[in-house]
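Q: What changes when inosinic acid is included in the input?
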Amino acid sequence: MRLSERPVLTEAHIAKRVREIANEIAHDYRERELTVVVVLKGGAIFAADLCRELRVPLTTEYVRAKSYSGTESNGQPHIEIAFDEPLKGKHVLVVEDILDTGRTTSVLMRQLAEHRPASLALCVFLNKPVRRVIEVQPNYSGFTLGDRFVVGYGLDYEQRFRNLPAIYDVRDFTPSQ
Ligand code: IMP
Ligand code: MG
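A: The predicted holo structure follows.
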């Protein structure tokens, strides 16, 4: 496998969009204190940039979701939740790298809803609506992509490439299931 020579989304393009989403969120939550729930590992880099652009009071919590091996979802998401503070009564914004089939996110959102937050919303950096198997709608979305596999800015291929500052297409991959 190899990566596209040119980024699909450049650093500048990403930074501009992250600022726009942060402004939108800050406006929507101007009267509510936010609890940002970062979905590891993929959401870490997007969330770090987003939180620094969010000029509103907030706290952060982290969950870990695992669903992929290679480029195909195995359909059995595993979610690890360990919160410092209960989410009950909080205004929770889940921050994820990508919404693909929706399997991981639907399970995660259902589990978080059981904690009885005052509100629960979803912010994804990338959205691949054509890949959806389970209906999930993000409240905030950075960019919409077609059916392609990308890496960088937190997104991995077999744990690699998360550190790339831009988004690249993966070409010639052999799905490992
Ligand atoms: P879903 O359960 O199919 O929605 O899978 C969501 C998870 O799959 C994401 O959190 C990513 O870890 C991974 N994923 C989906 N599409 C891509 C991609 O294009 N690149 C890298 N990881 C992806
Ligand atoms: Mg992944």
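Observations recorded in class: The chain has three helices and nine strands.
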